[in-house]
Amino acid sequence: MEGWDPSTKSTLTQIPLLSTKAGPRDGAAWTQRLKEEYRSLIAYTSMNKSKDNDWFRIAANADGTRWTGKCWYVHNLLKYEFDLQFDIPMYRGGKICLTVHFKPLWAKNCPRFGIAHALCLGLAPWLAAEVPILVDSGMVKHKDDTASASES
Fold first, then answer.
1. Which GO terms describe its molecular function (predicted)?
2. What's the CA gap between 43 and 80, in Å, rounded?
């Protein structure tokens, strides 16, 4: 956890770790893994709400392999909202397939880290780093700006 700011460390230590090594093809073990995923997501969401830092909504299909929702980031007092969607392609044994960027992190923490950890360590910092740049460069426009431009 070295290299992470104290706030991220504090948040990460409060998200429950997972213990079940299972993928979608593993039947009852996968059901147990999903219960652990939901438990950690609920804890992370509750923690964010208590800190007035609510920034995503997410739900899964019945199999727990396709997740959809919304995430948002406030920049210059404007809320920018994005669709959130991912599939969980998993190897046998509960290892989530991730890009090269996350591979070292997950290699050390599999199967203890799950979706809530990926949101905390992946999507949250990405939104904080990239949304201001995308907005300032004009690549992302606020929905009110888009609506007023089309009305003109």
1. UFM1 conjugating enzyme activity
2. 24
